TrEMBL record:
Keyword flag DNA-binding: yes
Any one Gene Ontology molecular-function term assigned to this protein's record: transcription cis-regulatory region binding
Stated name of the protein: DNA-binding transcriptional regulator, AcrR family
Source organism of the structure: Sinosporangium album
Keyword vocabulary terms for this entry: DNA-binding, Transcription, Transcription regulation
Record-linked PROSITE patterns: HTH_TETR_1, HTH_TETR_2
Domain HTH tetR-type: 12-72
Pfam families: TetR_C_14, TetR_N
């Protein structure tokens, strides 16, 4: 297992300090009212240092959302080429859930605070949704590539991604206010995936068969 060096650990501490300061300020005084200068001051760094870690305050606010999506995409690319798309996607999502389950209590609270911030900030939800859609399209492109179909004329890869991601999103949004730890968060997501699996006809996602 890779052991981060002193420089890497220092950078991680600074990144987390910025995230903690940003989330605290966003929740206390509102996302739109919070400036990068305020976040930097609260984290005891300069605004210039802020920009070494995040291009915008939006990137900071949604750090855990995008980190999770990138993890899913990376895992999807490692799945066996002959595996059916939905199975590959489930494995990728479950690998991401394992990372959530293994997160430190501090990181778990950061994830939950991010969710509370989204609840309180409709404008941020819109921007997050736009970027999430772009990530889901990249997942669909990977599925299309593996299945030998063209995403421009075949909607099935995007439907496969949307089916699972929407199921998990609905499950989380319906219950996230009651979630206080990673174990419960993972359990809710796993329960939703199991329900979805039981609702599907075997082989439904084999894109090599005629639609």
């Amino acid at each position: 297992m890779h052991q981060p060096g002193l420089r890497e650990r220092k950078k991680q501490r600074t990144r987390l300090a910025l995230i903690d300061a940003g989330l605290e300020l966003f929740l206390a005084q509102g996302y739109e009212a919070t400036t990068i200068d305020q976040i930097a001051a609260a984290a005891d760094v300069s605004p210039r240092t802020f920009f070494r870690y995040f291009a915008t305050k939006e990137d900071l606010a949604l750090h855990y959302v995008f980190e999770n999506e990138m993890r899913i995409l990376a895992e999807l690319a490692t799945r066996p080429s002959d595996e059916l798309p939905f199975a590959s996607l489930k494995h990728a999502f479950r690998k991401s859930l394992k990372a959530v389950e293994d997160a430190t209590p501090e990181d778990t609270q950061r994830m939950l605070r991010t969710r509370r911030l989204l609840d309180a900030t409709p404008s941020l939800v819109g921007r997050a949704s736009s970027r999430t859609y772009a990530m889901e399209r990249r997942m669909a492109e990977e599925i299309a590539r593996r299945q030998g179909v063209e995403l421009t004329c075949d909607i099935r890869p995007m439907m496969i991604v949307a089916l699972l991601s929407t199921t998990l999103r609905v499950a989380f949004e319906c219950q996230h206010r009651e979630l206080t730890n990673a174990k419960d968060l993972v359990a809710v997501s796993e329960s939703a995936m199991v329900f979805l699996e039981r609702s599907l006809v075997p082989g439904w996602d084999d894109l090599t068969r005629p639609s």
